[in-house]
From TrEMBL:
Pfam assignment, any one: ECH_1
GO cellular component: mitochondrion
Residue ranges of the TM segments: none
Alphabetical GO biological process terms: fatty acid beta-oxidation
Matching PROSITE patterns: ENOYL_COA_HYDRATASE
Record-stated family: Belongs to the enoyl-CoA hydratase/isomerase family.
Gene Ontology molecular function, alphabetical: catalytic activity
Taxonomic source organism: Linum tenue
Residues spanning the signal sequence: none
Name by which UniProt lists this protein: Methylglutaconyl-CoA hydratase
Length: 291
């Protein structure tokens, strides 16, 4: 019922926007809110809303080339703001997280910044990183990590917080923190075992071993999806937050494609998800209008 409630609330919010009168004012408010809030995002976190047939797809682009997208305080603020904004955005149906930096998705936390922090500042940063990835994991829309190159430490933890992971063949995944006497503190020790099992997760965390995309495909996980049934007609929505009815084996990466082709593959999947949401929305609007 929790999953059905989430879908119903999402569709109801969309429907309320499609009606005359209040819709125009609501749409204006959404536009004003976007104009006001989005400039506050950091320069290292760029938000792009696709248009026309791809309307509903949002791409969050990591852009900190001088550090291979290592997460410092400024990027962390940008990520948190972005996820909070997307949670309130009724126009977003699916979110892609990608990188504009060649051969790097995200190199993890910025260790140079960390060296300059006090113990209390480090603890605050780690807590903030953990809660920010929890926001990502809890977003009401499906999320896709587009991984080309390195996704290490906090970078992998961010990808683990997404529903799907699409990897180029040049992707390298790992939690190497233990080699620096640091415990993965942003949810990796919880999310990785859920995906690959405790034994494999322990080996990867204890050794800090890095794996390539092909191996990530072969590591067994349980990839959850669910069917949502409407009393009027059968509807379905794909989402990975809930463990209802259906599961099948896959890998730490949902797809591995040739290097440089992760984004096109992710966009293909995003379009498929987006079309399903639009179909559901159109059908729900029809049901509500005739009821």
């Amino acid at each position: 019922m929790g999953a059905l409630g989430m879908v119903t609330r999402s569709l109801t919010r969309h429907y309320s926007k499609k009606t005359s009168g209040p819709f125009k004012l609501h749409h204006q408010y959404q536009s004003w809110r976007t104009l006001i809030l989005e400039p506050l995002s950091s320069e290292s976190v760029q938000v792009r809303r696709l248009s026309d047939a791809d309307s509903g797809i949002v791409e969050v682009n990591l852009h900190r080339p001088e550090t291979k997208n290592a997460i410092g305080n400024e990027m962390l603020r940008g990520l948190r703001h972005t996820f909070e904004t997307l949670e309130m955005d009724d126009d977003a149906n699916v979110v892609m997280i990608s990188s504009s930096v060649p051969k790097a998705f995200c190199a993890g936390a910025d260790l140079k910044e960390r060296k300059e922090m006090t113990a209390s500042e480090v603890q605050f940063f780690v807590n903030s990183l953990r809660s920010t990835f929890a926001l990502l994991e809890a977003l009401r829309v499906p999320t896709i990590a587009v991984i080309e190159g390195a996704a290490l430490g906090g970078g992998l933890e961010m990808a683990l917080s997404c529903d799907l992971r699409i990897c180029g063949e040049n992707a390298v995944l790992g939690l190497p923190e233990t080699g620096l006497a640091i415990i993965p503190g942003a949810g990796g020790t919880q999310r990785l075992p859920r995906l690959v099992g405790k034994a494999v997760a322990k080996e990867l965390i204890f050794t800090g071993r890095r794996i390539e995309a092909k191996e990530a495909m072969s590591i067994g996980i349980r990839f959850e999806s669910f069917f949502v049934l409407c009393s009027v007609c059968a509807l379905y929505v794909i989402h990975q937050h809930s463990a209802l009815t259906m599961s099948h084996a896959t890998g730490l990466a949902n797809y591995t494609v040739p290097a440089g082709e992760a984004r096109p593959k992710a966009l293909e999947i995003a379009r498929e998800i987006n079309s399903k949401v639009q179909e559901l929305l159109s059908l729900m609007i029809l049901i509500l209008r005739i009821s």
